[in-house]
Amino acid sequence: MSFTGCGGEQGAGPTNPGDVQRNSGTGATASDFTARDIEGKTVRLSSYLGKQVILLNFWQTWCEPCVAEFPHMRKMYEAHKDKGFVMFGIAMDGPETVANVPAFAKRNQLNFPVLLDEDSVVAAVYNPKKSAPLSILIDKAGKIAVVREGYNPGDEEYLEADLLKLLDAASAPH
């Protein structure tokens, strides 16, 4: 079985498994945003910036590669959430499907916070092409460290290796 990504511009992502999408965002300071989670609570990214390693994972309910990636995301979140790591699943579903997101998150056993971005405010900053899935790792200093676009089986190993490097750097004595 082979996956790549949904939405976005064709051919815009990495072509080989494990390739990292290096773009102008890498190394930039992460921008703050406010979004509501599926329980209606307001989440501000700035509450986590500079305190934890953050993963923003953009997806849509109809995206098969996104669904294929979720078991790995759940496992990674569970393994590292107590080590200074927070993950936000950012649902890019628009007005026609956003109502499906809470049931979809439950059905797919998403154990990490899921944020709604139906008006594309967060995507406009971090994922203007609306690529799905798209994972953005932000280091503890609040800088965008890694951007990975699409999903192919095995990519989760590269993403977790990137995460471990950032967690190790965050826990190293200064």
Keywords, please?
174 residues, alpha/beta, Glutaredoxin, 7-stranded mixed β-sheet, 27% helix
Largest sheet composition: 7 strands, mixed
CATH homologous superfamily title: Glutaredoxin
Instruction: Write the H/E string, N to C.
Output: EEEHEHEHEEH
Using DSSP, what is the number of strands?
7
Overall spatial form: globular
Rg of Cα set: 15 Å
Q: End-to-end span in angstroms?
A: 44 Å
For the record, the CATH architecture stands as: 3-Layer(aba) Sandwich
> In CATH's first tier, which class applies?
Alpha Beta
> What is the domain total for the residues?
1
Strand order of the largest sheet: 2-1-5-4-3-6-7
CATH third-tier fold name: Glutaredoxin
Q: Which range best describes the helical content: under 10%, 10-25%, 25-40%, 40-55%, 55-70% or over 70%?
A: 25-40%
Structural class: alpha/beta
Low-confidence blocks of residues: 9-24
Mean pLDDT: 88
List the total number of helices.
Answer: 4
Strand content: 15-25%
How would you summarize this macromolecular structure in one to three sentences?
With 174 residues, the chain is an alpha/beta fold.
